[in-house]
Design the sequence.
């Protein structure tokens, strides 16, 4: 039993808070803190258990330290934005608590994300005897654990990995993103990188596509190759991988809107002067778009996210697919959120639970595939994200 501090009261924060509250034997006390106190209070009011709330600016380390020293959690789950990662890690080091997040650090003024900044904390976390678990969402997160599970149980060597993220849901808006619009648009408009024979190869954004038939009648979708952060850690920790690619589905409608917004400069992160005020076009666009947390009651359909893995076992070539299918409406009935927030929030809770229960232990900074996948895979089945496997 222990205490958890959740930072970030957005779409994902809502799910994490609900899911931690469902496991009182592990999360005895919960505090939800964010920049806007009313958002924390709104989430707390949905839950049938006392949830403490607080206002915090997670870019302000002394404020974070004060909150942590006041509440004394065993662990902090960071589901604010990637910009806050390093500040929250600094505060965890200063106060001696474990750290979990779902997205790697990204500097606000550069559309670039990579693990280098957080991996650089390895010695400091090790010296403090603390664990920082990076990327405990779905992708990154569950996809890393799926790969580690495949490696542990089904392969002697993994040579190819395709991570395939299909969202077959629709929310009825002409254009909206399922998670933070700023982060989502930065991710999909970045140059694509995939791993090929020991190096990352760069190609134009969205320049490679194919169709993918999801299992269980979820449907057939066009998927586009993107760069995604788990490729960086997976090829480091499983060095036999020769090719690793990440694919995501997008509707024609989403792509049409995105192209126009890009063409007119609305997705730029370079500040522009408007009526004497400096504004960042992408941040202004975020203010106009629907809040992802508001999509919950509107979204229908299913997500299907999984890994297709190729390699060898006992000298024979093998192909394996492990996946989860999640229904937007069922998620909403359970935690009042759509499936994108749900598929991120559940693994964040499970990652924290692994540390709180002592099932995952370590001193330093870790990616998910470095841990034993078995207890995590077990917990996915019990906490709302059951998985299935197919030998192709
Ligand atoms: P939202 O924008 O809905 O929520 C982010 C929350 O963070 C907001 O409520 C905001 O607070 C809070 N926040 C932002 N800046 C600060 C700050 N300086 N101090 C305190 N709080 C702050 O985003 P999502 O919930 O959709 O995403 C949360 C995280 O999950 C992101 O990092 C995203 O990249 C990650 N993610 C990971 C996925 C995965 O599979 N691994 C998939 C989807 C998302 P307020 O509203 O109070 O101002």
Sequence:
């Amino acid at each position: 039993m222990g205490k958890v501090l959740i930072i970030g009261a957005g779409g994902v924060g809502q799910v994490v808070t609900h899911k931690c509250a469902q496991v009182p034997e592990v999360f005895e006390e919960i505090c939800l803190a964010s920049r806007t106190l009313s958002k924390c209070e709104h989430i707390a009011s949905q839950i049938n258990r006392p949830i403490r709330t607080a206002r915090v600016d997670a870019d302000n380390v002394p404020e974070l330290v004060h909150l942590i020293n006041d509440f004394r959690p065993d662990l902090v789950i960071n589901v604010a934005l990637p910009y806050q990662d390093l500040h929250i890690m600094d505060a965890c080091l200063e106060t001696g608590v474990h750290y979990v997040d779902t997205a790697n650090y990204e500097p606000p003024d550069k559309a670039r994300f990579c693990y280098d900044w957080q991996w650089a904390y390895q010695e400091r976390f090790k010296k403090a005897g603390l664990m920082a678990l990076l990327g405990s969402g779905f992708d990154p997160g569950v996809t890393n654990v799926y790969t580690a599970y495949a490696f542990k149980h089904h392969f002697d060597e993994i040579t190819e990995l395709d991570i395939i993220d299909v969202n077959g849901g629709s929310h009825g808006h002409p254009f909206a993103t399922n998670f933070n619009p700023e982060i989502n648009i930065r991710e999909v408009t970045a140059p694509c990188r995939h791993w090929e024979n020991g190096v990352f190869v760069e190609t134009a954004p969205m320049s490679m596509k194919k169709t993918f038939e999801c299992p269980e009648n979820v449907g057939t979708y066009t998927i586009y190759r993107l760069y995604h952060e788990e490729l960086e850690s997976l090829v480091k920790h499983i060095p036999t991988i020769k090719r690793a690619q990440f694919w995501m589905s997008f509707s024609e409608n989403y792509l049409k809107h995105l192209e126009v917004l890009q063409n007119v400069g609305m997705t730029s992160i370079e500040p522009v002067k408007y009526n004497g005020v400096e504004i960042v076009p992408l941040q202004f666009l975020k203010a106009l778009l629907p809040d992802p947390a508001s999509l919950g009651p509107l979204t229908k359909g299913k997500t299907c996210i999984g890994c297709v893995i190729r390699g060898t076992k006992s000298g024979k070539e093998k192909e394996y697919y492990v996946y989860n299918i999640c229904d937007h409406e069922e998620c909403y009935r359970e935690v009042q959120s759509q499936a994108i927030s749900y598929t991120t929030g559940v693994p964040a809770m499970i990652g924290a639970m692994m540390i709180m229960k002592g099932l995952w232990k370590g001193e330093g900074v870790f990616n998910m595939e470095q841990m034993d996948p078995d207890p995590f895979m077990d917990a996915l089945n019990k906490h709302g994200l059951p998985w299935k496997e197919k030998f192709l």
Remarks:
- Residues 8-13, 34-36, 39, 56-59, 79-82, 84, 102-103, 137-141, 179-180, 183, 292-293, 340, 344 surround NDP (CB under 6 Å).
- The two ends are 42 Å apart (CA to CA).
- The mean pLDDT is 96.
